[in-house]
Amino acid sequence: MKDLLDRVWRTIKGWSLQELDTGLYVIRFEKKQHLDLVMRYRTWMLSGPSGALLALFNWPPSGKWDKVDTSSVPIWVQVHDLPLMFMTQANATKLAAKVGSLMDIHNKGQEGIMGWKFLRFKVLVNLNKPLFAGCFVSCSDGGKVWAQFRYERIAALCYKCGTLGHDHHWCVSDPVLVKGNEGLQVWKFGSWIRAEARIRDCFGSVSSLPCEETSQAIHTAEDGGSSLKPSSPQGNPLAAKVPISGQHGGKHDKPTPPPYICGDPGS
């Protein structure tokens, strides 16, 4: 772990690592600005796209890490292929709620259209639940488009069940499918869930879907774009946890550590 973090935090010096339990570490920084920098850019991914997710949390005043909620981490999310007039702060707030608890919105405060490529927001994502892959959005012409959710800097992701922490080759679940154009059924989760992927969405180059073809395309819980509205025309201690094979939990009591203890990467 120390060697991995040395490569990730190349410019940060004066920190130490102590393992408390399997997958649980305490990281101490000599300088608070280094701790703040690590926390600012969390969550951190180790060993490439198939590696582990390093989640950092504030250490509780009691010194007992089992009191810390390690089930959720902050992740930046992009929503692609929305019609331009739907790219508003109000719609970003509604879409973020489908993923988790909203923490921040890129270009927050900007009125009207917020960009031309995609919406972007930071959400507290529950590691024990499947990622939200996307939803159909109703357009004024009576058609629907698939809004693809793409996640920045995520670790191992199962392309069958959509959960972070394990690979689909070892998953016993059946793949979740989505029905699209001309009745075509495709895997809902794949490399396109990652923000850096070249494939734009689960339908490849197809994103515009007639209404009649999408009436039963996805679970009702994810057919949630109907509520979106187009725009009008104009030194502190932290606990670090690395989830093991999708399992999150365990208990370990530890006296309150010295100042500047840190744990999970990401922002």
Q: What do you see in this structure?
A:
Helix content is 9%, strand content 27%. It is mainly beta. It contains three helices and 14 strands. The longest helix is centred in the first third of the chain and has 9 residues, at 32-40. The strands form three sheets. Strands 1, 2, 3, 4, 13 and 14 form a six-stranded antiparallel beta sheet that branches. The radius of gyration is 20 Å and the shape is globular. The chain has helices at residues 2-8, 32-40, 89-97; strands at 15-21, 24-29, 42-45, 53-58, 72-80, 101-105, 118-126, 134-138, 144-151, 177-179, 185-187, 208-209, 238-241, 261-262. Mean pLDDT is 75; it is low at 205-222 and 245-267. Strand 10 and strand 11 form a beta hairpin.
Task: Please specify the SSE layout and strand pairing.
Elements: H1 2-8, E1 15-21, E2 24-29, H2 32-40, E3 42-45, E4 53-58, E5 72-80, H3 89-97, E6 101-105, E7 118-126, E8 134-138, E9 144-151, E10 177-179, E11 185-187, E12 208-209, E13 238-241, E14 261-262
Helical content (DSSP H or I, runs of 4+): under 10%
Major pleated sheet: 6 strands, antiparallel
Structural class: mainly beta
Number of strands: 14
Q: Give the helices and strands as they follow along the chain.
A: HEEHEEEHEEEEEEEEE
Distance from first to last alpha carbon: 20 Å
Mean pLDDT: 75
Low-confidence stretches: 205-222, 245-267
Radius of gyration from the CA trace?
Answer: 20 Å
Q: Number of helix segments?
A: 3
3D shape: globular
Q: In a few lines, what is going on in this structure?
A:
With 267 residues, the chain is mainly beta. 9% of the residues lie in helices and 27% in strands.
